[in-house]
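for the writeup, i need someone to sanity check this before i put it in the appendix. the sequnce is what the collaborator sent (i think, or maybe the updated version? ugh). structure was predicted straight from it, no edits. if anything looks off just tell me and ill rerun, i have time this weekend
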Amino acid sequence: METYFHSVTLDENKCMGCTNCIKRCPTEAIRVRKGKARIINERCIDCGECIRVCPYHAKKAITDPFDSIYSYKYKIAIPAPSIYGQFKPSFSRNQILNTLKAIGFDYVYEVAKAAEVVSFATREIIKKDGFKKPLISSACPAVVRLIQVRFPNLIDNILKLESPMEVAAKLVKSEVVNKGYALPDEIGVFFITPCAAKATSVKAPYEKERSNVDGVISMKDIYIKMLNALDRPEETDILDKAGYEGIRWAGPGGESTALETDKFLAVDGIHNVITILEEIESDRLEDIDFVEALACTGGCLGGPLTVVNPYVARKRLRKHVIEAKEKSMPKTFQEKYDSDLVWTSDIKYRPVMKLDEDIIKAMKKLETLERINKELPGLDCGACGAPSCRALAEDIVRGIANETDCIFKLREKVRELAIQMAELEAKMPPVLDREKGKR
């Protein structure tokens, strides 16, 4: 089976074998075996839900270390708009952006600016009315991976436009080269990310061969450096050029409200997203042209690699949105880059749920799975190390678990053995089995 890079990994030394992660994983990609969690790579969509819920911080995201920027002669930062919500409202957007230059970057370009380009392109697609409804935003890579794994019938509904991150990287590289600041092979573009899924989409892009982004740095890793730099009052450059439409992308509904239509639905939180995707798949979602689906609760402001509580961050972001009302991107600039946003390749269904390559064998295994599932208690307690009784039944059919992994089935087996032992203990060997009073 085809594999791809995963940014979400496990630190076994910190894992205590609790079941928090297996109960929250939206694709049942985690099992607990021998007292440690195990991630099934084929199922993982790098949503970061396990990072969020692990009380022992055993799940972590692989991102690039800050020092990796020095591998390039000309270092560019493209921060996600959610970064503005990480700092106190007393700091201006321009101050926040200038700190990135203060800590080592040569150039800064707002992803929020590229988000406006994507919004414009999306509006044009919706106006043409020749698309499969509803369109599902492709901005969240975890949602796209989820559709690949669990909702293959909805692949054609995905909006096949590059993400603001990719557009920003493409635009800023062109801008820097045109200004004569650096040659293409001297440039390193680094995305400042609020989530693990973006790191995966850079290392293993699903919509093209290679990402425009050269590295991904976690907001958590860069936050202290930026906070220290904010103490310096220097604002040498005007960097806050994005309009409010792009900044709003950081929170739920930000992408949708820029589309000039009320036929949209915005949903955040991976389990809520699954519910809506089920509605779409069952054709129960009416009069909706566009669905903005974000894996993290609170949108990108609630990403597992952010620092501030998403509700606090949303309040802080509101101030920047208000201030940016007069800085919307000129329409001519948007139209200029509308043509090359479409994906260069199609994403494919990743059938990780199938039981066997042979359809006949798969059907027989499914019958066995259903029978085993009916015999299990149906409590979904997680004590077996699987997230549900059905997941355990699937593991048994796949040959990676036993029926006695279920504590209730184990007790039944022990009880049966105890009864058999008692019956055996009462029996006498034939040579000693004599009736009383007889010689």
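The CA atoms of residues 127 and 261 lie 10 Å apart. The chain has a mean pLDDT of 89.
thx in advance!!
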